[in-house]
C-alpha cells in the first residue's frame, strides 16, 4: 500500500478518489485573508496581560499564535529542513516505514485514515511518538543522513531538543490557560497526568487541482493542546470562525496554538476546540510539523468543581481519554464534533441538536 504515498512522484492530474463532491469542496475564493489573528507575545513583562490575551483567544477563537516563545529559530529551521529531506527519500526507503494502522506509534502514511475513508486527502505524514524520548527514539527512521550526521544522531540532537522545548512551551501555555480559568497554575498539567506527546510531520505536495480536494478537511483535534510549526513560505492552514473560513498565514518565528477537544471539555465549554483545515495549492509543496500533547489514557476528563459550582452544570459526561480517542478514530475526520457524542444532554435527549463539520452539507 506504500504506492499510495503522494510524495513518491509528480502528479499531473488528481485521481478520482481524491475529488470531493461539489458541496464539500473548499471554495477557496470564499476564504477571508488573514485578519485579526490573535498573537500573544510570551516575552512581555506583564503576565496579567498575557493571561488576558490567552483567555480572550481561547474563548472567542480557540486558537492563537505565540511569538518570543523561547524555542531557538535555528533549531526550527533544521526541523523543517530534515522534514523536507525525509519526504524526498527514494520510494523504497519510505516504503519501509509505511503503515495504515492508526494504532502504530511510529509510521509513515497518507491522507488521514485510509482504512475508513471513501475520499482521500492530499497529504503524506510521518507520525513519531516522542515521550518519553528514550523509549521511542531507537525506532525512529534511520534515514536520511542530514547535516553530515546519521539520522539517529540528528534526531537526538535536533528533534530530541525540539521535542523537549515544545513540551516545555506546551506546559507553560497550559499553566497560563489554567490561570485564565481562575484555577491554580499547575491545575491542567496535573489533571492531564503524564501526558503523551507525538508529532505529525506533514507533507502536502503540489496539487494540479487544489479546488477539488483538501490537505486535511475540517476537523478538531482530539487531544489537549496542539503546537503547530507552519511552513514559513507557504500558506495552507485555515480556521473557522463566525461561519467563515480564515486563512492563517505564516508569521515569522511564531507557533500556532490549537485548543484541543479535551481543553474544551475541561473548561466546561468555555474554551473552543477550533474547526480547522489544510488546503493545498498548485504552485508549491508545503510542510508543517504538528506537536500534540495528549492526556494520559487513564485520566478521567471532567471539569473542575470551581467551573460548575456557580450553578453551571457539567456540559459533558466524565470519560477517560482512552475512551475518547478510540471513539475519535472509529469515525471519519469530518463528521460532527466528537465531543457532541459525550454531551450530557445526549444521555437524556438523544435527539438534541448537533454541530456538524462546517464543510459537510446538512
Taking all Cα atoms into account, the compactness measure Rg is: 20 Å
Q: What structural category characterises the helix and strand content?
A: alpha+beta
The name of the CATH topology is Jelly Rolls
Question: What is the tally of helical segments?
Answer: 9
Q: CATH architecture, please?
A: Sandwich
The largest sheet is:
8 strands, mixed
Please indicate the percent range of residues in DSSP E strands (runs of 2 or more).
15-25%
Molecular shape: globular
Tally the beta strands. 14
What are the low-pLDDT stretches, counting only 5+ consecutive residues below 50? 349-353
Helix content percent band: 25-40%
Tell me the layout of helices and strands:
Elements: E1 39-41, H1 47-60, E2 63-67, H2 73-87, H3 91-95, E3 106-110, E4 124-129, H4 133-136, H5 151-180, H6 187-191, E5 196-204, E6 216-219, E7 225-230, E8 237-241, E9 244-247, E10 255-259, H7 261-266, E11 276-278, E12 286-294, E13 300-301, E14 319-320, H8 321-329, H9 344-348
Parallel strand pairs: 1-2
Antiparallel strand pairs: 2-10, 3-4, 4-5, 5-12, 6-11, 7-10, 7-12, 8-9, 8-11, 13-14
Could you walk me through the main structural features you see in this protein, from its secondary elements to its overall organization?
With 362 residues, this protein is an alpha+beta fold. The protein has a single domain (2-7, 27-348), classed as Jelly Rolls (Sandwich). 26% of the residues lie in helices and 19% in strands. The chain is built from 9 helices and 14 strands. The protein has helices at 47-60, 73-87, 91-95, 133-136, 151-180, 187-191, 261-266, 321-329, 344-348, and strands at residues 39-41, 63-67, 106-110, 124-129, 196-204, 216-219, 225-230, 237-241, 244-247, 255-259, 276-278, 286-294, 300-301, 319-320. The protein has an 8-stranded mixed sheet with strand order 1-2-10-7-12-5-4-3. Strand 1 (39-41), helix 1 (47-60) and strand 2 (63-67) form a beta-alpha-beta unit.
Amino acid at each position: 500500500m506504500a504506492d499510495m504515498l503522494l510524495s513518491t512522484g509528480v502528479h499531473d492530474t488528481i485521481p478520482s478518489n481524491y475529488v470531493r463532491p461539489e458541496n464539500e469542496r473548499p471554495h477557496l475564493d470564499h476564504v477571508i485573508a488573514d485578519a485579526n489573528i490573535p498573537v500573544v507575545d510570551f516575552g512581555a513583562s506583564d503576565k496579567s496581560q498575557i493571561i488576558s490575551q490567552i483567555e480572550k483567544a481561547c474563548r472567542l477563537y480557540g486558537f492563537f499564535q505565540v511569538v518570543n516563545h523561547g524555542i531557538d529559530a535555528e533549531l526550527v529551521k533544521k526541523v523543517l529542513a530534515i522534514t523536507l529531506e525525509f519526504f524526498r527519500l527514494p520510494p523504497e526507503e519510505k516504503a519501509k516505514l509505511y503503515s495504515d494502522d492508526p494504532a502504530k506509534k511510529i509510521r509513515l502514511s497518507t491522507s488521514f485514515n485510509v482504512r475508513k475513508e471513501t475520499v482521500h486527502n492530499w497529504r503524506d505524514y510521518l507520525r513519531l511518538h516522542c515521550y518519553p524520548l528514550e523509549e521511542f527514539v531507537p525506532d525512529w527512521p534511520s534515514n536520511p543522513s542530514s547535516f553530515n550526521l546519521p539520522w539517529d544522531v540528528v534526531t537526538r540532537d535536533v528533534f530530541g531538543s525540539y521535542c523537549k522545548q515544545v513540551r516545555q512551551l506546551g506546559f507553560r501555555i497550559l499553566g497560563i490557560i489554567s490561570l485564565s480559568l481562575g484555577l491554580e497554575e499547575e491545575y491542567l498539567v496535573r489533571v492531564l497526568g503524564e501526558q503523551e506527546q507525538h508529532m505529525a510531520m506533514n507533507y502536502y505536495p503540489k496539487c494540479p487541482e487544489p479546488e477539488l480536494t483538501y490537505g486535511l478537511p475540517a476537523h478538531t483535534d482530539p487531544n489537549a493542546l496542539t503546537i503547530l510549526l507552519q511552513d514559513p513560505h507557504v500558506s495552507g492552514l485555515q480556521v473557522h470562525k463566525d461561519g467563515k473560513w480564515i486563512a492563517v498565514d505564516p508569521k515569522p518565528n511564531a507557533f500556532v496554538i490549537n485548543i484541543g477537544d479535551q481543553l474544551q471539555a475541561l473548561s466546561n465549554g468555555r474554551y473552543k476546540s477550533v474547526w480547522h483545515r489544510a488546503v493545498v495549492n498548485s504552485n508549491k509543496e508545503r510542510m508543517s510539523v504538528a506537536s500534540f500533547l495528549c492526556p494520559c489514557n487513564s485520566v478521567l476528563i471532567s471539569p473542575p468543581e470551581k467551573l460548575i459550582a456557580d450553578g453551571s452544570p457539567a456540559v459533558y459526561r466524565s470519560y477517560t481519554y482512552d475512551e475518547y480517542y478510540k471513539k475519535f478514530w472509529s469515525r471519519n475526520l469530518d463528521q460532527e464534533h466528537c465531543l457532541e457524542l459525550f454531551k450530557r444532554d445526549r444521555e437524556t435527549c438523544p435527539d438534541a441538536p448537533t454541530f456538524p463539520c462546517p464543510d459537510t452539507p446538512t
